[in-house]
TrEMBL record:
This is Homoserine O-acetyltransferase. It comes from Selenomonas ruminis. The keyword NADP does not apply. Its EC number is 2.3.1.31. Substrate binds at K163, S192, R250. One of its GO terms (molecular function) is homoserine O-acetyltransferase activity. InterPro entries: Class_I_gatase-like, HST_MetA, MetA_family. Transfers an acetyl group from acetyl-CoA to L-homoserine, forming acetyl-L-homoserine.
Amino acid sequence: MPIKVPNALPAAHILESENIFVMDADRAYSQDIRPLKILILNLMPIKYITETQLLRLLGNSPLQVEVDFIYTETYVPSHTPSDYLAQFYGTFDEVRHKKYDGMIITGAPVEHMEFEEVAYWDEVAEIMEWSKTHVYSTFHICWGAQAGLYYHYGIPKFQVPKKIFGVFKHHKCVEHERLLRGFDDEFYVPHSRHTEEHKEDILKVPELTILAESDSEAGPYIIANLEKRQFFITGHAEYDPTTLKQEYDRDFKAGMNPQIPQNYYPDDDPSKPPIVRWRSVAHLLFANWLNYYVYQETPYELDELYKESEY
Ligand SMILES: CC(=O)SCCNC(=O)CCNC(=O)[C@H](O)C(C)(C)COP(=O)(O)OP(=O)(O)OC[C@H]1O[C@@H](n2cnc3c(N)ncnc32)[C@H](O)[C@@H]1OP(=O)(O)O
Ligand SMILES: N[C@@H](CCO)C(=O)O
């Protein structure tokens, strides 16, 4: 079954070459099944890379998925041409009247700033408030997760002395969790951040459960609220095989003497091709979310979702 994206989105060509069935927005679905509506708030600077990474995982499903992208109006992205945004993206104002089965809030390279200092903070906070009544399930990634944990539950982030950078071993913290169905007892996921949440702050919030964590400095990895309508993912399962390499090379060229990503290069040698240990986890994570927490739970008629809302 296909994933439907804005017409001529560059990611579509890449995904088609990977045998993912992509439909443009004009084409009708062949079956009378309501597609799942997913909204992606893409805060990453190089938009097409994140689009491709997320659509690759959302598209690897028998479910019909229709994706809308939005960017922030209160901070206009500098690395993405305005005609690209005009062609493929909307704004929150253009979608606030709609309801969605799922939403993804991406990471963002703004973790050094206090949340309130980020130019689009008020807008992102408004979107997170709106999501409570207009989105069935929200998946927050990296800075998106930090922002969600802070906005919804007051959990602070802290600067770490050494960048959490590499591919870290994790384990499940709960049994029989559908989001983790198919995960091995130990699994690997990339992290790339300079900040963290403290586990004890998360455990203090009765509505939150840590579903998976790492005993390394990567710490809590997947946090869910009680209703399992909000997931906070501190790592980057969606990253391409060479994303960490690109970040390392970028910082190396900038003379920043970056640390070598852990558990990534054979013999920790950046001249060797990296070992990819997280692809299957990425596919399971997104497929389980889509299947168990979006498709199987969301109302068939999206208008039924928080009908009482007069937002
Ligand atoms: C913690 C996480 O979530 S990890 C996810 C973040 N990881 C990444 O973004 C990896 C890829 N990013 C990069 O490699 C770099 O950010 C680059 C190369 C794209 C840009 O680096 P630089 O040019 O040095 O930084 P620059 O000052 O232009 O800002 C980079 C981004 O930070 C964000 N940003 C910077 N200042 C602000 C601000 N005041 N308010 C909001 N966003 C800001 C923007 O997203 C900006 O990119 P955009 O304008 O295209 O949206
Ligand atoms: N993943 C990011 C961290 C930025 O906050 C990078 O190194 O680009």
